[in-house]
Amino acid sequence: MFSVKYLRIVCLSRAAPHSHWPKASRLSVCKPVLSSSHCFTTNTLQNSTVDFTAPGKQSELCFCFNQVFRNCSTCQVKVNCWNCKQVLDKELTFFCRSCKVVQPSDDGTTFFKIMDCDHSFTVDVQKLQRRYLQLQRSLHPDNFSQKSAREQEYSESQSALVNKAYTTLLKPLSRGLYMLELEGMGIDEGTESGADSDFLMELMEINEALHEAQTPDEASKIGHDMKARLVELTEQIDTALQKGELQAAKALLAQMKYYTNIEEKVKEKLSEFM
Known about the structure:
Blueprint: E1 2-3, E2 7-12, E3 29-34, E4 49-50, H1 58-74, E5 79-80, E6 87-88, H2 111-114, H3 125-139, H4 149-170, H5 172-182, H6 197-212, H7 216-242, H8 246-272
Helix pairs in contact: 3-4, 4-5, 5-8, 6-8, 7-8
């Protein structure tokens, strides 16, 4: 038994040493240190005492750590510029305001912060694209060919991180999967064990119809059907994530993944008619 009131979390990005913990908790783990100082606000946990050694409490501990990890990653920590040693007091800094040199990337920063987006399944794609172009104009390695080797290295890592953040948040499927990843959840590759048998049968019929399509119109009709289903799924996933229904969102994202694959197959089929 220990009081969460006196728990200070130092966030680490490493695998959990306890293999018996739930898989969802092993993606982001925090190291507990007893301290009276706080790097986050624990209004909901303050003055509470939890026996995390009790049966079934490990998942509560993991949820607590995930929430604290998110709060820790958003708190402002003062660091110094590697070049001029001036304090960088912004939450996300690409350049030092004093000497203007590019700073090292922070792999712990979420893609939503990098792209200046709300942590939401619904994003403004046009704003996302503007942010991407703005950052790449500033961070692209070609701009630092005459700079020091260290600054060239930082520009490359920053530019690569921006690329990854942009491509992940651009599409609903990758965006939703990333949001689940931040919660310690994911969809296993190549597994259909969790899919409903009726749904799998429907997929087989759609794939067979696409394979047997003899004209562009027949293939296009299947493509239009997939687009309509993906729009509907997008709305359902958004609602589930807003309500915090992660398991429901995970199941819907699995369906979206299948329909997205069929949509890609439709494009390939249409190219055969050209």
